[in-house]
């Protein structure tokens, strides 16, 4: 995006995917077991046998995961999809896919809003000027009030205002 060039939407999405992997790094390293995904990642050419050895040389699972993510992010924009496919193929930690994809969808929506503007709201503003509304006439308890004929004709022509009390003493 430097030198007067603008990035395409695809380039921006690729950068977002790598950013998501970086931001979710701690979360991924908490749960991800890198050894489970070696065959899938190797078949996708995202890692090779040397990378596998480097990863396995790390002393803890967390450090192995960090090394795997470092290597994947060096492979470019396909690393996100490759990791997602590997997790889906093994089917043991699909909650990680859900977390990553939710974040991606949220960022895609934000990107679309930035590029195309906000989606018009389907809500209708029903602002009412209360100063022009008729004010209710105060009535006393027991007073009869005429009922408009334009409503139900089966109603009696008058109605009585009743007062109900929450007093339980009878």
Automatic annotation (TrEMBL):
Signal peptide: none
Biological process per Gene Ontology, one example term: positive regulation of extrinsic apoptotic signaling pathway
Top-level taxonomic group: Eukaryota
UniProt GO molecular function: kinase activator activity; NF-kappaB binding; protein kinase B binding; transcription coactivator activity
PROSITE patterns documented for this protein: CARD (PS50209)
Residue intervals of the CARD domain: 13-88
Pfam families, alphabetized: CARD
InterPro entries: BCL10/E10, CARD, DEATH-like_dom_sf
Coiled coil segments of this chain: none
Record-level GO cellular component terms: CBM complex; cytosol
Protein name per UniProt: CARD domain-containing protein
Organism: Pinctada imbricata
Lineage of the species this protein comes from: Eukaryota, Metazoa, Spiralia, Lophotrochozoa, Mollusca
